[in-house]
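Protein modeling request. Please complete all fields; requests missing the sequence field cannot be processed.
Requester role: graduate student
Desired output: 3D structure, token encoding
Chains: 1
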Amino acid sequence: MFKRKQPQNYKDLADTDLVELSKQDQEAFGALYERYVKKIYSYIYYRTSNSHDAEDLTSRVFFRAMSHIEHYVDKGLPFQAWLYRIAHNLVANWHRDKGRRKIIPLDEFVASGLKSDAPEDETEADEEREHLLKAIRNLPTDRQQLLYLKFVDHKSNAEIGEILGRSEGAIKSLYHRTLTALRDELEQPTKVEAEPLPRKRRKLLP
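Delivered output (206 residues):
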């Protein structure tokens, strides 16, 4: 399948060049693997919350990519969007087979966004963080995934559309609805526990 070529400094090559070389040279695909394996693993881990399954699915992503690299078509989007698309499909099948609810634990993202260096702000930040996490977990799966791709992986709307199988316009609309839903959820006052009623004083015996 692969033909051995003269050694090259693959690290300096663009993805498009590596993809073309990968169709004939396995080492070129290895360079793509090294370039994106951590990102793909992180994405899968956030969707499975399981390191063992994340490692297995990551391996399957790159095996499938290598097996189909000859048929890869450049649609004007980064090559990694294709890898994310493969990962998205494999994780969706994984959840379907396991019958599990798809939840993206965005705790680290939220924690870093609300981090404060002032000790007096720690309690307030913790409360805000928990409130935001609760609101995120209440979102549908596709909206949780959108937030991860947008704010953790810093993907463009076009890339997210490629990964989720939707148009760029649909992603823009979904993003707007997601932010609106989060805002409405966060603006709701938190429930305050009712203070216990004062006990009636017992009448003392004379």
